[in-house]
Write the structure tokens for this entry.
Amino acid sequence: MASPKEASHSIEIAGPNVGGTGYGLLGKSHPLLQWPFPKSFAGLTWRPTIPSEEQAFAAMHAALTSGCNLWNGGEIYGTPDNNSLTLLKNYYTLYPENADKEVLNIKGATRPGLQPYGSPDYVIESVEDCLQMLGERGRIDMFECARRDPKVPLKETLGALAELVDEGKIGGVALCDVSANTIREAAKITRIVAVEVELSLWSTEPLTNGIAEACFELNIPIIAYSPIGRGMFTGRIKSLGDIPQGNVRKILARFQPQNFGTNMKLLRELEKMAQKENCTPAQLALAWVRSLSNKERMPRIIPVPGARTAERVKEKPSRSS
């Protein structure tokens, strides 16, 4: 996943510099619950079976030493007592010297059913809960509401977060899965330090729907989640039977029976291209996302793939551009 060259491709985000590839904490601390309210669906805390803390810590440590110091987590990645934040707290207890080496992007402010709730009081409560779960060594460099709440004026939601920035409780305000119009509206309310969206060879919408353009014009970096196609490009999913029951992919269009076969044919083509480049499909897919960063009229783009093991983290992309 990462390369020792990551540090030389540093990008400034929320103040500190981060490597050209980050690390997703989605899925490292709680087993999968059933849809429609999955508390987990991939990575280190959202998986049908979870890695041990020892395995998770080894993967996290490998990411950090590889230069992948932008870490993406959230209170919704697990249960209140076992999620990516509590995992971080335990990690910092074991490795206190690393507590100041990562840049943490944390999402929250949702209610059961993953419903966004952007009232100022609830947003503040969510941040306070996250800080408590992180413990005294943790800090939140960026906080984002997991989605925009259409029932609450954006000015009220972001105004509450801006106050928390002024109080020093969070480092900056980010956005997650919002439209280009929302990005422009938000930037008029407070400084937006990052926008998180799904971006991969399978999810190229941000490149054409105005999101990338808005971020470029406003000088806002994009944090690209699921850059390897929700695990599809790893080659571990060869049939629909490889997707565990209750996994969120069961409801996504690309994993439905009428689409899966066509997508597998496309994956075979990607595999052929990767073979020519002497790399894996996942490495090629990740390198493609990285290559978009700072192209003409493109913002800085930082993919945040997840990985359960240190071995996966240490896989070097064929191209580190």
User: Anything to note?
Assistant: Confidence is low (pLDDT under 50) at residues 2-8, 29-43. The longest helix spans residues 257-276. The radius of gyration is 18 Å.
